């Protein structure tokens, strides 16, 4: 996951930073921030689901085929 996406998700969901502050730091408006967050969440979800499939395959003994 790109560094900017990780930092964005961390700032919003873990650090509870104000979105206006994040917009100033990134130099974007609120509408574009919404787009960036949506894209970062999609990337995170894809990585998470890929990891879950890998765990399931490993647990089923399919990981070493």
Salient structural properties:
3 helices; elongated; mainly alpha
Topology (SSEs and partners):
Elements: H1 3-14, H2 19-26, H3 30-59
Helix pairs in contact: 1-3
Describe this structure in words.
- This protein has 65 residues and is an all-alpha fold.
- It has one domain (3-59).
- The protein contains three helices and no strands.
- It has helices at 3-14, 19-26, 30-59.
- The chain is elongated.
* Helix coverage percent: over 70%
Counting DSSP E segments of at least 2 residues, the number of strands comes to: 0
Q: How many structural domains are formed by the residues? A: 1
Outline: elongated
The major sheet is characterized as: none
Report the average pLDDT across residues. 90
Q: Which class of secondary structure composition applies to the elements?
A: mainly alpha
Task: Give the distance, in angstroms, between the N- and C-terminal Cα atoms.
Answer: 27 Å
> Helical element count?
3
The run of helices and strands is: HHH
Uncertain spans, ≥5 residues at pLDDT below 50?
Answer: none
Question: What would you report as the Rg, rounded to the nearest angstrom?
Answer: 16 Å
Beta-strand content estimate: under 5%
Summarize, please.
With 65 residues, the protein is mainly alpha-helical. The protein has helices at residues 3-14, 19-26, 30-59.
